[in-house]
Every structure is written in C-alpha cells, then in structure tokens.
Design a protein that fits this description.
globular; 12 helices; 300 residues; MetI-like fold; mainly alpha
Length: 300
C-alpha cells in the first residue's frame, strides 16, 4: 500500500511553499527598486524634477515629462473610471445569462489581452489620423483608456459581486429600489475593490510607452507653467498638444543618445517613475481604506 502523507505535514509543506513564493516576489521587487534607486541616486533632486531637458548639453531634467505623465493618468481616469465602473455594475447586477452577456465578457477579455502596440496603431489610425488631431495628449489618453477599461470593468464587477448577499437583501427588504441599493449600499461597500482596479489601471497608464509613441508623440512644445489657459498652445493644461511622457522619454533618450549624460538621465528618470508608481499605489490604498471605513462600515 502507498503510504499517505500526514495532513499536517502536507499543510506545512504548502504553507512553506507559499511563504517562499511570496518572499521571492518581495525580494525581486526590492532588488528591482533598489537597483534603479542606486543607479539614479545622483539625479534625484529638485532641479532634475522641475527643469526641462537640455538638448545636446548635459544637466537636463524631466519636469515636463513628469507633468505629462500625471496629466495623462488624470485624463484617462476621467474617461475610463466612469465607463469601467458602470460596465462592472451592469455585468454584476443587470446582465442576464445569455449570448449577449457572453459576448460582452469575451470582448472584455479580448481587449485585456491585446498588446499595447496594437492599441497604439489603432490610436494612430483613429485618434491621430481620422480625427485630424495629430499627436496629442488627448489621443494618448483615449488610447490608454482602451487599455484600462477591461481591468476596471472586471475588478468593479468582482468587487460588487463580493458584497455579501445579505446586505443587498436587507436593503431591498427595507423598501429600497434596485438602483438605490446599488448606489447607496453595493457600490460604497465595493469601493476598496473598485479602487484596487483603478490603481492597477493607473499604474499601467503611468508606465505605458508603446501606445503613446503612436498617439501622444515623442516631443513636447516648450511649456509655460505660468499659463493655465487650456486653449493656449504653450499651456501645460492644453490636452490637444503633443506630450512626451516619462516612459517615452526614457525609451527615447536611451535609443537616440542626444545628450552626453543620457544614461544618467535615463537612470534618474527610471527611479522617479518607480517611486511615482509606488507613491501612487500607497496613496490610493490609503484612500481606499478611508472610503471603506466611511461607506462600507469596515475596518480594512
């Protein structure tokens, strides 16, 4: 007879394996972040974060590129978050099993698996050529929205479905309509999960490069940060201007090498990009916990 492994030993082996895998991810992340912070430590100062690139001479910064990245995330979030959350609520609460719902889910899964370079080429055709906008920040934001919608929609659906059925039934039993239950009970309770989806989508948008090469462009006009008129060509708030983001700038300066300190600038920009993503994730999780306590009545 085959000797059975004791259940307690099996549990310990599984637990140890999970700890090892989790530890490997942590070590890999720390090594990755530590490497770029070490390589870019000489460039991490206020001047580097606020000044514009210096072409053909050393000592340039990444100020406009950093602003363009943040502004792009903001614009894409204005479009993708309402649409993605609405799609998740529809799939969780209104969609009935059938061919239409299956087709919608297939479409979402297909969009989520499309390579970003394909989305970039689609954006080049639609948001650059057909609209006549040429390379613009808005075109890049719309292209990134296509990348973000599947993530936000699926995480929003899962977050709404994860709310205990007793909460929904209690709201309906008290006389609330279906929409009132969704708006005042289910969505507030699902806020932490929805924010997690927004975090994942925003992090991808912040570090995206391939899509933006074909939509937002690889150059930026000289911006006047004292001009806040969004209709002005030199205003940083103008969404219909070319906008080189931080990720695109890292690729460009490494591939073209236009300045003598290109490697130092690329290392510093990479460190800033990683720190920005980490800071955004930490801030978003903090906001998620506050919203969870405020609306969900939980202490996560």
């Amino acid at each position: 007879m085959r000797r059975r492994i004791p259940p307690r030993l099996t549990d310990r082996l599984a637990t140890a394996t999970l700890y090892l895998v989790s530890g490997a991810f942590v070590v890999l992340l720390l090594a990755f972040v530590g490497y770029f912070l070490y390589k870019g430590r000489s460039e991490l100062d206020f001047r580097f974060l606020t000044t514009a690139p210096a072409f053909s001479t050393a000592g340039g910064g990444i100020g406009p590129q950093l602003f363009n990245s943040v502004y792009l995330v903001f614009l894409s979030g204005l479009i993708s978050v309402p649409l993605g959350v609405a799609a998740g609520i529809y799939l969780a609460e209104y969609a009935k099993p059938g061919r239409l719902t299956d087709f919608l889910r297939l479409s979402i899964e297909t969009l989520s698996s499309l390579p970003s370079i394909v989305i970039g080429l689609f954006g080049l055709l639609v948001f650059v050529t057909l609209t006549g906008w040429k390379f613009t920040l808005m075109g890049g934001a719309l292209a990134v929205t296509i990348l973000n919608l599947p993530v936000i929609a699926r995480t929003s659906e899962d977050a709404v479905r994860s709310v205990p059925a007793s909460i929904k039934e209690g709201s309906l039993a008290l006389g609330a309509t279906h929409w009132q239950t969704i708006a005042r009970v289910l969505v507030p309770a699902a806020v932490p999960g929805i924010v997690t989806g927004v975090i994942l989508a925003s992090g991808r948008a912040f570090g995206e490069a391939a899509t933006l090469l074909y939509t937002a462009g690889m150059s930026s006009p000289r911006l006047d940060f004292t001009n806040w008129n969004p209709l002005s060509a030199t205003s940083p708030l103008n969404p219909f201007r070319p906008a080189e983001t931080l990720a695109v700038y890292i690729w460009k300066i490494n591939s073209e090498g236009l300045v003598p300190d290109a490697r130092q600038i690329a290392d510093g920009a990479s460190a800033v990009l990683i720190l920005s993503v980490l800071a955004f994730n930490l801030l978003a999780r903090f906001v998620s916990r506050l919203l969870g306590r405020r609306f969900g009545g939980t202490r996560t």
